[in-house]
Each structure stands twice: as structure tokens, then as C-alpha cells.
Amino acid sequence: MDSYSLLYSSSHRTGLLSGFQRLRSQGSMCDVVLEAGGVSFPCHRALLTSSSEYFWALFGETTAERLAGSISLPALTTEGLDAILDFLYSGWLSISLPTLPDVLEAARYLQVETAVSICERFLTDGLNADNCCGYANLAEHHTLSDALEAANQTIAMEMGTLLQESRDDLLRLNIQSLMAVLDADEIPGVKEVELVKLALDWLDENGPLPLLKSNLLLSHLRFGLVAPSDLSDLGTAHRAMATPLIRSQLTRALEYHRLGSAQPIRQSKQSTLRASPNRVLLVGGGPSPDWPEQQMLAFDPRSRTFSPLSAGMPLRLRNHCVCSVGGFLFVIGGQEVNEGDEEGKKFGAAATSKQVWRYDPRFDRWEAMASMLEGREQFTCCVVEDAIYAIGGRHSRPDASAHASVASVEFYDVAAGAWRRGAKMPRPLYGHASAALDNGIYVSGGRPGDGDRGDNLDDRRESSREVLFWDLKGRVWEKRASMSIGRFSHRLAAAHGFVYALLGMYEPFCDIEQYDPRWDHWTRLRPLLTGSFNYGMASTPSGNLLVFGGRRWSDGREVVVRSVLEYDTKADRWREICQLPRALTGTECTLLPLPD
């Protein structure tokens, strides 16, 4: 068989449409007239039939309209039909904010799906606080799922502005969108009680609704985020709140508030903050290691920006530990600094603290929890199976002139709100680090103290290379392969099934190594060019590690730095991603969902 070529000309298709458009403008060879809004549009039956499912069915062989000279379309406006006909004849669709509803209605009615897709893209690309409610109603009416989802997300993110400036638009919102918004996990800057009031106002504006629908709408509210004093009034605030289903939800919310210390492990969607869970909270620290501040900073990894929290720490602490459980922050132990001038040149440190404080970001509130069984500083803590473990460290001796290191371990039973003794480590340690992985706790480095005999602060004993593992099932301490170097005042982090040991206070303080628990083996990784210590560190959900501030040696003296570094654990790569608002050392970090 002879070979041949098949070639395509896009100019021919363009010319074909141009020819039809020229015939239409001249009124030549038109064999049907469409009418809408009292205006007639001469058209070509063949082009309409080939471009629209509606006209294909209308001009079929068995329909009464197949030979009709005029077709009336009363459901369409003149502007909408004109725009769709221009699109069919030219491929260009003219849309503006005022004409979008008419054009979309015509495209849907005439089943011109390409024009519908263009309208949906126009709607999605143009979403903002001014039009998101109207666009959501339009998308819901025409079943534009992607645009509807985008509009609902915009409403949730702009809710604070809408409540203040466009409340009437919210009250005209379709019920599907309102339920989707009230189901959103992130609604910045809006208290839950304001959403409750919005839902009740919407019911007044659009009701009465069937009981099933009003229950379904109100069930998307998170009553656990409403203060107990406000919850008591909600039961009588509206007739829709008096149904058995909603009253049971209010009762469960009040019971949640009465749980006290057990709140962190009794979380549900009803009590979960509508906030991004990826904020890093920097707790304490300051520009001087001797004069820590009570500030807390929130870091947003998406925008790489910092914002101060209005609620400062109850105490001025150093060498403390922090962790988060169930969306609550716990600040544990440390050494309380109780006096000093503005420059921090003078200070006095009280005895090592055993106090535990809990911060609830839902209501911006601190609460004193059960104290540890003994005071600790330069210790380490981590969370495993809803229990907070406090491991080793030092405490002030009775004469306050020296410190004694400890091998003791205790854990906070969140459900019971009490501290209990755990199995002691083989020897006292302070300045060590820990990380939780595989239902156990790894403890590395530090310095072996002299226990109850006291530690000589001038003693430069060597930092430990030893690694211990606490097996929660066996409840025993086991030795693991030692690190390649001894570390003190360093950090451990778990990511992607590995444990990473970072930096440290003494040489070599730039090195990083990775532990593989499957093979009980450490591997040296790419070192940081300039090491630091006394920094804050957090592990992100992606497995990357963030290092905030700290101190480093420069020209023989310690310098407090502002850098924020990110370590990519998969690529073994460091980079500086931003700067702290000011130099900071001694801060402790944890991930915590925070309201904007």
C-alpha cells in the first residue's frame, strides 16, 4: 500500500468559523431565528446543532421544532443568549461581573459545556471577599463543584472581614455553602461564638427550616470552643437550639470543659481549634542567656513570619522544657529567674522549679497543673502514648550553692492529672536530649553528674556518646549504639523512621548524625558550616527540622544569633529561610495549632 501523510490546518477551522460569523452578520443563509427578551437572532441551524447538545435534540428528526423558522427562548436574557451565540460563532466568550449570571445561565440551558467551563474558571480566578458569597450561590445553583469548593474556602478564610462588612451576604448564602464553611478546619480570626450567632441569624433569615436541616446545620458548629458561660445561654437563645440533638451536643461541650487535666486526651472535632496545625511556638528565651523573657512567638512556616502571642509565660524560666498534647501547651520545670534590671545585667535565680503550666490557645488562658515530683532543669521531656516523660536533669541543692544531677524519670498521666515515678536511668544525666520513636524514647549524650553528691560546675567532664532506649512495652532502659561524638546541650529529632542528633555546645558542635533503629547504626551527615547551641528546634510534619536562633562562637566570644535554619532530612541539606525579629537564645519549641 502506498504511504500517505495526514496534515491538519488550524487556520481552516478558524476560517470556517469566521465564514459563519460573516454570514450571520450579513443575515445571509440564516435558516432559523432565536428569540430572547424581545430580540431576534438570525442563526444557522447546522452550526447550532453541531455546537450544542440542546440544539442537537431540538432539531432532531422527530421533533416539532426541526423545521420551525423561529424558536423562542423565554428562560434566557438577551445578554446571555447574545454572548453564547458569539462564542459559538467565534470561539470568544465575553464575560463581565454583571453579565456572568446571564451568560452562565444561557451556557447551562443550551448545554454548551465549553462555555460553562470558561465561566467556572472566570468565577474561580476572580474570587475575593467582595464576591465570594454571590459566587458560591451561583456555583451551587449551576452545580459547579470546583468553583463551589473554591468559593466556600474563600468564605472561610475571609469570614472575619465578611462578618464585619458583608453580614447580609452571609445571610443570603445557600445552606450547602454555609454548612461547608462551618465544617472548615481553618477560619482565621473568628471566635466560635460568632459562628454560632451567624448560624442562628441565618436560620431566622431563611427559616423556618425542617428540623432535620436545622439540626444538620447546627451540628457543624464546634461547641467545645465556646466558653462555658456562653454555652449556658445558648440552650435558650433560639428554638433550633432546643432540639434533643443540639442540647446533647451542648451537654457534651459542658462536660468537656469540666474534664480539667484530662481535656488534652479527650479531644474531638467539637473541641478542635479551627486553625492550621503547623505553627511553631517559641516559648521563652531572650537576647541574653542570663535574662530570659516571658514572651511567646508563633512562627508560620508557610509565610515564614513571626507574630507575638498576647499571653506571656507565667514565669521567667530558663533550661525548661515544653511539649504539646491535644492542642494544649505544657511548660515544665526549669530554673526561675526572679529578678533583674532591664538590660539583664543583674539576675537572681530561685531554686529549680517543679511547676507545670498548661496553656489553652482556645481561650488564651494559663492554668497551673500538678507539679513534678522533683524540680528539674537541663532535663529533657517527650510525649509517648498520652503521657509526658521528664527524664534526668539537675536540681538545686539545699544550700543553693551547687546542683545535683539525677537519674530519675517521672511521667505525667494526663488522664489522672498526676505525676508518677518511672524506671531510673542507669546513671544521672543532664544536658542530654531525647526523641520519641517506635513507641519508645531515645536519650543521647549529656554529662554524667555525681547524683546526690552534687555537681562541680567547674568540672569539664567529657560529654557522653552513650544512647539509651526506653522500651514502653518492656519498661526497661536498653543501650543502643553510641553516637560517633559526645554531645552536650544538643537536640534529638525523629523523622522518616530515623533519629537525628544535631549540633551541641562543645566541639565538634557543627556535626549531625543519623541513627537507623533497624540496624542500630549511626551515620555522619553533612555538617553545618557554623554550629550553634542553646537554640530552639522543631520537627515539621514534612520531616524537616527548623532551628531558631541560639549562640555561636565568633572571634573567641559567644554571640546570640537571629537566623532560622531549615534542615532537609531527605536531601541532607541546610539553608537559612528567614531571620528572627531579634536575636534569641534559650527558647524551647513545639508545634501547636493557634488561632489567628
Descriptive overview:
The protein is α+β, with helices and mostly antiparallel strands and 596 residues long. It folds into 2 domains: 115 residues, Potassium Channel Kv1.1, Chain A; 312 residues, 6 Propeller (Neuraminidase), CATH 2.120.10.80. 26% of the residues lie in helices and 27% in strands. The chain has 15 helices and 34 strands. Strands 6-5-4-34 form a 4-stranded antiparallel β-sheet, with no helix packed on it. A 4-stranded antiparallel β-sheet has the order 8-9-12-13, with no helix packed on it. Strands 14-15-18-19 form a 4-stranded antiparallel β-sheet, with no helix packed on it. Helix 6 packs parallel to helix 8. The longest helix has 17 residues. The radius of gyration is 33 Å and the shape is elongated. The mean pLDDT is 87.
Count all strands and give the number.
34
What Rg is obtained from the alpha carbons, in whole angstroms?
Answer: 33 Å
Q: Remind me, CATH topology of the largest domain?
A: Neuraminidase
Q: Which range does the strand content fall in?
A: 25-35%
Question: Strand sequence of the main sheet, in spatial order?
Answer: 6-5-4-34
The name of the CATH superfamily of the largest domain reads Kelch-type beta propeller
Task: State the secondary-structure class.
Answer: alpha+beta
